Amino acid sequence: MTIKLGILALLEARAGQGDQLAAFLEAGREIAVAEQGTVTWYAFKISDTSYGILDTFETEDARAAHLNGQIPAALGQVAGDLLAREPDIRLIDILAVKLAALLADRQTHEP
User: Fold this and answer.
1) Spatial CB neighbours of 18, under 8 Å, sequence gap ≥ 6
2) 55-98, pLDDT tens digit by residue?
3) Would you tell me how many other CB atoms lie within 10 Å of the CB of residue 37?
4) Largest Cα span, the chain
5) Angle between helical axes of 60-67 and 70-82 (0-180°, round to 10)
6) What one-character DSSP code corresponds to residue 95?
7) Do the Cβ atoms of 89 and 7 come closer than 8 Å?
8) What are phi and psi of 61, to 5 degrees?
9) What span, in angstroms and rounded, lies between the C-alpha atoms of 15 and 108?
10) Contacts 24+ apart (CB under 8 A), 42-48
11) Distance of alpha carbon 45 from alpha carbon 25, whole angstroms
12) What is the sign, positive or negative, of the torsion defined by CA atoms of 90, 34, 58, 100?
């Protein structure tokens, strides 16, 4: 497995909407699990109003499929209520990866 591409999305919650944004991100995990091309998906909290998502992919096609998928569409639907500004979405190149041995082993032995 060669993880070489990613998406970093930085999100700023409206005042008083941090908990709702966190709940939205937590619910997004189920959608990400169903995406075959998404290798890893992280939702994270930086502060009470700053959050983010980091996704990784092996191919440009997988990254494009994610960008055109359910999570960005769902974020677009709630952005006006939850976000203080437009998401800062950056396409990134992954330079190095360290996966836990169990995860890496499981990934190499799946059919």
Assistant:
1) 48, 49, 51
2) 999 999 999 999 999 999 999 999 999 999 999 999 999 999 98
3) 16
4) 46
5) 40
6) -
7) yes
8) -60, -40
9) 44
10) 48/13, 48/18
11) 10
12) positive
Rounded distance between C-alpha atoms, residue 72 and residue 68, angstroms: 7
Residue at token pair 């360290």: 98
The HSE-up count of residue 77 (CA atoms within 13 Å, CB side) is 7
Amino acid letter for position 27: A
Q: What is the pLDDT of residues 7-62, one digit of tens each?
A: 999 999 999 999 999 999 999 999 999 999 999 999 999 999 999 999 999 999 99
Token pair listed for 10 = 């930085």
